[in-house]
Amino acid sequence: MDFLTLFGIYVAVVLTCIALVCKYSGHQQTPLGLLLDKITGIVSPWIPQCLQSICYRTMHRLFHQRNNFFLYLHLLLEVVVYGEFSYEVFGFCLDMGTSSISLCIPYILLAMKSYLFYLCCSRDPGTLTKANHTAELKVYQYDEKLFQQGVKCSTCQLVKPARSKHCRVCNRCVQRFDHHCVWVNNCIGAQNTRYFLLYLLSVCAMAGNIAVLTADMLLQAVLRTGLLHAHYIDEQGEQQPAGPLFIIQHLFLTFPKIVFMLGFLVFVFFLLAGYSMFHMYLALINQTSNEWFKGKGHNCQHCHPYSAHNCRTSYNPFRGFYHRGILKNLGEIFWPLCPVQKKEN
């Protein structure tokens, strides 16, 4: 099995994983989950109890408690990519005439991304406390569908404001809760959603910029070596023109680390670009991830398909209860709503 075939299998597996994540995102039961349950049921009787306990505690620690593992993994991947870019691609690009300004852009984006990453990790997402609870109850109205008035959080023992949710990982209620992000080890809520959106966009820009510079370097290498007009001798001893597959395999053998880095960057770019578009869409319609997942399959509570009664309001399930227009929705992201304080006479 040659190098190109291995990479083709790698790309197919990655694309399949992305497709499965997109298709079954938010589902309680997924094919992978069911398969893991069956495998666990078959294998568990043969695994010592102490090893099962260690695996359970490890998984619980990684995905159900706050920890820095994914922060370190994030930084490790970043160091590997920038190390390879700085060590090999940067020098090749300089030799091929790429401007110094273009080569400095990835490092400027890295500085911007690092600052936004720090804000996502360190800023409070909008934690509900006894001190601010009464005021936060007045920020949003209850839609009486996803958020009902008077419901109390069983852990915090506080009445839940509309659009809030208790995060089991952080063990706190968060106003306008979106989701808990393991990559920043923090909840995404009313007070840090703007930083999270900008962080996603900066990572996409960073990955896309390095990918373009790397692809341009490989293209220049092909053009300068004359591979487009080259020929090779096949297994039957006949002369064949160097087609795209031959050129790609030649690049694999000549620049293996650079080509794999390019493949990784393209994968990260498209994955995060799709994720960023999803969150931008939610921002434009004033929804959170939590509301989007909870709202799947929900119809307007006032409309009944088997009766003549229909909702007289302009209810739109794709916009949701809190949609106030695109500009106001975006303004709410970047300038979170605060409770109106009544003036005392």
Automatic annotation (TrEMBL):
Could you cite one Gene Ontology molecular function of this protein? protein-cysteine S-palmitoyltransferase activity
Instruction: Please give the start and end residues of each transmembrane region.
Output: 6-26, 69-87, 99-120, 196-219, 258-284
Q: How does it sit in the membrane?
A: Multi-pass membrane protein
Question: One Gene Ontology cellular component annotation?
Answer: Golgi membrane
Enumerate the PROSITE patterns for this protein.
DHHC
Pfam families given in the database record: DHHC
Family, similarity comment? Belongs to the DHHC palmitoyltransferase family.
What's said on domains? The DHHC domain is required for palmitoyltransferase activity.
What is this protein called in UniProt? Palmitoyltransferase
Instruction: Say which species the protein is native to.
Output: Sinocyclocheilus rhinocerous
What broad taxonomic lineage does this protein's source fall under? Eukaryota, Metazoa, Chordata, Craniata, Vertebrata
Q: Which gene encodes it?
A: zdhhc4
